[in-house]
Amino acid sequence: MTSDHFLDSIQQQLVKKLPFVAYSKPKETLVKAILQSNSEVYVVEDYSEKGFVFAPFDTSKDAVLIPIKNSLSIECKHVITNNSENSQSIIQNTDSSKIHHINLVEKGIEAIRKEQFQKVVLSRCEEVEFLGVNPIDVFQKLLQSYPTAFVYCWYHPEIGLWLGATPETLLEVEGSRFKTMALAGTQKYQGTVEVSWENKEKDEQQFVTDFIVNNLKNSTINLKVSDVETVKAGSLLHLKTNITGALNFESSKLKQVLKALHPTPAVCGLPKEKAKQFILKNENYNREFYTGFLGELNFQEKTTRNTNRRNVENNVYTSVKNVSNLFVNLRCMQILKQNALIYVGGGITKDSNPVAEWQETIAKADIMKKVLQ
Ligand SMILES: C=C(O[C@@H]1C=C(C(=O)O)C=C[C@H]1O)C(=O)O
Q: Which residues form the Chorismate-utilising enzyme C-terminal domain (predicted)?
């Protein structure tokens, strides 16, 4: 399908107020969309469903599914963008949101010093003007600006319109093999990835790695943990560890693995339940789908393999694998009638500096603001 035809199809879906998701996986130019043919709200029951899942931060709330069955799947090799200018944001934060966030972080540090938990991820939501902007144009800008991210535009008339470009994989499963990552620690990119990190960032990232390894220990085999590396995500750098292995049960049990992982200390805290209760009680707004997860659930992928043995004709095997590609919903925004809500947060440990944490959220918000100008 041509780029124009693809963009026109998702635009029509939005005009007709029908659910859809358009997305591109990290480092791929292929852009896919799933267009639901009705406006029902389908919810995920047990993660054996096939479709695109959109799950909130709070696991007591429903995850929404755009099922493959009731949808049209389209794709195009490369979306061509006309409008490529990205200018710096001119939108200013108010003093009250700064004070509120700094107070929140101070409260988090105090709770850590009182040993209620070791890490908590605290966030805020920033409202910016979104007048006369076409969300599909913003999607195109996201694709162009953040090619190494999972870029998406998700819409359901009953739930809302979300756009994002996340650097974080929650879980990739292919057959029984899986990949995940521990991503945390932030600093601004200043022309090089050869940077040094403070202990605060090293610690907060290590919490995530340890949590993932501990929580996957019982359901996996051959767990491999990479060295920590510095990765670039837009104008930011993070610390990342890759974790790979094989699940020791079939993917029908994906539900348990997701329950063990989500929300990780990259977006919630440690211990998970205590940090989550602190977030729900103190953040003073609803994260909704921010720091939830999203992506392809149980897609059937055909792989054709020639065994290369001589004298054997038609020696081609086709196998079908169950594939899921799930990402953490970060660097995202929700589009309302005249405004966009940009969601940003950061990991707090005993060594956090509240003003630096505020500045980190500004840098993270800029990633979305850049595509709104
Ligand atoms: C919570 C966010 O990001 C997470 C927190 C990070 C941190 O505290 O340094 C870094 C990457 C993500 O794991 C966000 O982008 O809103």
A: 100-311, 317-364
